[in-house]
Design a protein that fits this description.
Domain Intradiol ring-cleavage dioxygenases: 136-164
CATH architecture of the largest domain: Sandwich
CATH superfamily of the largest domain: Aromatic compound dioxygenase
Shape: globular
GO molecular function, one term: ferric iron binding
Protein name: catechol 1,2-dioxygenase
Strand order of the largest sheet: 1-5-4-9-10-11
Enzyme class: oxidoreductase
Organism: Lysobacter defluvii IMMIB APB-9 = DSM 18482
CATH topology of the largest domain: Protocatechuate 3,4-Dioxygenase, subunit A
Bound molecules: 3,4-dihydroxybenzoic acid, fe (iii) ion
Oligomer: single chain
Length: 312
């Protein structure tokens, strides 16, 4: 039997009381958001006739999610991270800002404080023996299309098992393995050596995976490499590249793949290339340039404090 009580004056007044909309104190913006979100939840319970048992199943899942520290893991899976990117794109369109290098989600696995290198860095410590060597290089360009010497390239990726250092359930990786900050050289160029990462999967048996399974979805990402690119006078670019050879390149549970960010890994087997990069044998090569955008009215209008909060 379905009942509808959402639109009654009693329930509407109750929602205002829940968020203390008509009372003193508190933070007005928080009150506004909580009022809206609770109203949307009440309406969904009413419209979909969500049963008490369904509701308490959801609460148990939220507790499990929080205990596992996975709110940041399910968020991209449910598309919120990508939706926020689409909104930032729309704001830029309104401002007339062109992003020659598209933004895409940060994901939950960045760690601040990686070693800083100039021009070139080796990201992996050689311990992932099944890793195929990789060289990635390119130029960071400023908003005028000129190379940006001194630009900062923060890069992080997972190993061939799909595990990131600092989040490796086997505890095998040293801190900051496959994480570096590279300062672009006089020509705005950066270059690094690492291994070709594999795809990533959400932790098996986790609350994140359980919800995706209930939706008939998988929790896999194609192989990818994350970046923050920054330079004086420019907005920080959050992006990643996705590797074209991965069968899931267009089936990413985190919805991060975008046109302009899919890269071929070109196999180099000739002696000249091997020597030029100081490699010991065949390796994969990715060439990719980053284009930054100028500050808007002197400020980065899209920066967020997620990193500051995570460090606190
Ligand atoms: C998730 C993991 C990633 O490596 C990533 O880039 C994005 C999302 C996740 O577990 O949600
Ligand atoms: Fe990732």
């Amino acid at each position: 039997m379905s009942v509808k009580i959402f639109d009654t004056p009693e329930v509407q007044q109750f929602l205002r009381a829940v968020a203390n909309l008509d009372g003193q104190g508190g933070d007005p913006r928080t009150k506004q958001i909580v009022h809206r979100l609770m109203s949307d939840l009440f309406k969904a319970i009413d419209d979909l006739d969500i049963t008490p048992d369904e509701y308490w199943t959801g609460i148990a899942w939220l507790n499990e999610l929080g205990t596992a520290g996975q709110a940041g893991l399910i968020s991209p899976g449910l598309g919120v991270d990508h939706f926020i990117d689409l909104r930032l794109d729309a704001v830029d369109e309104q401002l007339g800002v062109e992003n020659r290098t598209p933004r895409t989600i940060e994901g939950p696995l960045y760690v601040a404080g990686a070693p800083v290198e100039h021009g070139f860095a080796r990201l992996d410590d050689g311990s992932d023996e099944s890793g195929h060597p990789l060289v990635m290089q390119g130029t960071v360009y400023d908003a005028e299309g000129k190379p940006a010497p001194g630009a900062q390239v923060e890069v992080w990726h997972c190993d061939t098992r799909g595990f990131y250092s600092h989040f490796d359930p086997t505890g095998k990786q040293a801190p900051f393995n496959m994480r570096r900050t590279i300062i672009a050289d006089e020509q705005g160029r950066y270059r690094f050596r690492s291994i070709v990462p594999s795809g990533y999967g959400v932790p098996p048996g986790s609350p994140t995976e359980k919800l995706l399974t209930a939706l008939g979805r998988h929790g896999q990402r194609p192989a990818h490499i994350h970046f923050f690119i920054s330079a004086d006078g420019h907005r920080k670019l959050t992006t990643q590249i996705n590797l074209a050879h991965d069968p899931l390149v267009n089936d990413d549970f985190a919805h991060a793949t975008r046109d302009g960010l899919v890269c071929e890994v070109v196999e180099r087997t000739d002696e000249a290339s091997i020597k030029a990069h100081g490699m010991d044998g065949p390796f994969g090569e990715i060439n990719f340039d980053f284009h930054l955008t100028a500050l808007v009215d002197g400020v980065d209008n899209q920066i967020n404090e997620r990193r500051v909060r995570a460090a606190a």
